[in-house]
Design brief:
The longest helix has 21 residues. The protein has ten helices and no strands.
């Protein structure tokens, strides 16, 4: 909260932690969510302390202080990916606020009431954060196609977890709209190359 210059109540923090533990029927996805939310110790500003070094600058080469907010959200190289993510979100829920607390901490503005697609958003955010983490020490933008592939990987894990637990209806409710949006952004060649075929409709 301090790093993104915000104050959150104990209720906000408790709700965020609680949601991380139940955001998906898949244990692997829940672990991914917890890892992306709790990786502050890997930021340059923390690594300076851990390794007792002197360089706390962003590893992507812009000279900015490598804080949590900068590395995950503000860096010029990661902003294009977040804008793409929010473009997808607008197709699901047009009023979604462009707020870093939502993807980074799963904390929503108190006046925001629409949570119909919260579980869907969480999967999108996990995929985005993992995609960003892959390029932390490289001077390049995270790849949108890599983000979509990571989403499809999460989608596949969620599908098999839902089948195992007999929760297919819940899975379909979370993923049906996003699956349609992802397919609309891909060419048939990309779908075939990356094996992105519907597990809901079988097409």
């Amino acid at each position: 909260a301090k790093d993104i210059n915000r104050h959150f109540s104990k209720e906000d923090i408790h709700a965020s932690r609680k949601y991380m533990k139940k955001c998906s029927p898949s244990l692997v996805i829940r672990e991914m969510k917890i890892k992306t939310a709790m990786r502050y110790h890997l930021m340059p500003v923390r690594m300076v302390i851990i390794k007792k070094s002197a360089d706390n600058r962003c590893w992507q080469g812009f000279g900015e202080i490598g804080t949590l907010l900068h590395c995950w959200w503000e860096c010029k190289l990661v902003q294009p990916l977040w804008k793409t993510v929010w473009g997808f979100l607008k197709d699901l829920e047009p009023e979604t606020p462009f707020d870093p607390a939502i993807p980074l901490l799963s904390i929503y503005p108190k006046d925001y009431k629409s949570f119909c697609y919260k579980d869907t958003w969480t999967c999108m955010f996990i995929a985005a954060l993992f995609t960003i983490a892959k390029t932390w020490n490289q001077p390049k933008c995270p790849s949108v196609i890599d983000w979509m592939k990571k989403m499809w990987h999460i989608y596949t894990m969620a599908y098999y977890a839902a089948i195992k637990k007999n929760e297919f209806t819940s899975f379909a409710g979370t993923w049906m709209m996003l699956e349609t949006i992802i397919h609309s952004k891909l060419t048939q060649e990309q779908k075939t190359k990356h094996c992105m075929f519907s597990l809901i409709s079988g097409s």
